[in-house]
């Protein structure tokens, strides 16, 4: 008998609302916290097929000035289309409309960020707690 792996649910923090969006090989689990921080955990592959969905989600979520923590530690593959979405976030953050941080300790994510020079342009953190503290007012 074959077992089906199901992801462990993300523990909810009191005073938050959460939502999940799943598209093919990528999943976005978002928590909108009372302190105004949006914590988005991205899982799976961010590639040519899924990157447009991430871009759309970010555009909808960040329509107004925002505080965002993008946790990429669950990403298994980060392709050039995903890097393009992250480069757009770097550009958007320049106008002060976005206070954000990325959680990335995963080599699959860090290596392409470092190779392209994006790592030097974005606020990288080793864990969610330090990223949330960095964007909190």
UniProtKB/TrEMBL annotation:
PROSITE patterns per record: STAS
Superkingdom as given in the UniProt entry: Bacteria
Chain ranges of the STAS domain: 35-135
Disordered, as annotated region: 1-30
InterPro entries: Anti-sigma_ant, STAS_dom, STAS_dom_sf
Pfam families membership: STAS
Listed transmembrane segments: none
GO molecular function: anti-sigma factor antagonist activity
Family: Belongs to the anti-sigma-factor antagonist family.
NCBIfam families per record: ant_ant_sig (TIGR00377)
Protein's recorded name: Anti-sigma factor antagonist
Source organism of this protein record: Prauserella rugosa
């Amino acid at each position: 008998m074959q077992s089906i792996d199901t992801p462990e649910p993300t523990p909810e923090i009191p005073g938050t609302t959460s939502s999940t969006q799943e598209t093919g090989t990528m999943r976005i689990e978002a928590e909108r916290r009372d302190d105004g921080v949006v914590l988005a955990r991205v899982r799976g592959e961010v590639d040519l097929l899924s990157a447009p969905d991430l871009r759309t989600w970010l555009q909808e979520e960040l329509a107004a000035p925002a505080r965002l923590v993008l946790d990429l530690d669950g990403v298994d593959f980060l392709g050039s289309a995903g890097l393009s979405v992250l480069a757009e976030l770097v550009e958007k953050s320049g106008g002060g409309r976005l206070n954000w941080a990325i959680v990335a300790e995963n080599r699959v994510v860090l290596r392409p960020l470092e190779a392209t020079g994006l790592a030097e342009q974005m606020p990288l953190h080793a864990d969610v707690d330090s990223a949330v503290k960095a964007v909190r007012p």
